[in-house]
Write the structure tokens for this entry.
Amino acid sequence: MVIPVEIELKPLVEQQRRYRWPKPECCPRCYESRVWGHGFVAAFFDGICGAVYLKRFRCPVCRCVMRLRPKGYFKRFQASIACIYESLSQRIGYGRYQPGISRSRQRHWIKALQRQVAAYLGEGFREQLLEGFSTLLQRGRVPVASNLAF
């Protein structure tokens, strides 16, 4: 289970495993108050060379493993939500890809957004992809996920 946490990446990159992560008050699955540290997992983010270590916690009752992740990122994505949205808006609005990000990656985002919008919002949103992005986000979906069951 991924838990988004309000943190800044710069101190996390500088301190790595020494960074003081906030401990969850309880397990989000069974609401047990006792959770303990369960090590770290390496993750990669755009603009940062090398891995960043994200803290994990484990519930002793239901055995749920929680991974903390900086807010503003979709799980399994290296680019921030703001970066993805900016890329999509530039491509949709001006017909250009954003420099500094691979074209194949940006094509992936636009194609996945088109599939998500068609599947969950219907054909009426086909011409309103950026509004579809926001609507899917409000519904708790990852608008640029390639898997519809994501």
Notes: The chain has a mean pLDDT of 93. Helices lie at 9-15, 81-94, 103-120, 129-138. The first strand starts at residue 2 and ends at 5.
